[in-house]
Amino acid sequence: MVLVVTDVVVAICVPRVKRGTKRHHRRKKLLSLAKGYYLNKSKLYKFAKESVEKALGYAYRDRKGRKRDFRRLWIIRIGAAARQNGLNYNQFIFGLKQAGVDMDRKILAELAVQDPSAFTRLAETAKGAIKAA
Prior knowledge:
elongated, c-terminal domain of poly(a) binding protein, two-stranded antiparallel ribbon, 5 helices, mainly alpha
């Protein structure tokens, strides 16, 4: 680093940094994350770094998206089972809320698939609560 002060050159001594093992460990860790990638993306640090950054970004984004996807699937399953019992999805959920049944969509979808008779009882409860309201 050179500092110029009024036409006089003053050299500032900055200690040299040798990264040594830290650098090797960091690069080795990143290359292990890129294991299985195509061609140079798993062998060369520069390309592996780009690929791993991209992959981690996708992973973060899709962890959020997975929650949306499952909720959408549960709603579709509940709606299909509710229609088999003479209600649409909105009426079914409204009826359950009126009846004070506090079950989340994951459990309701599981019941719709695994135990249709229990779901039918819930649908009847929802119908009764809608008529009472």
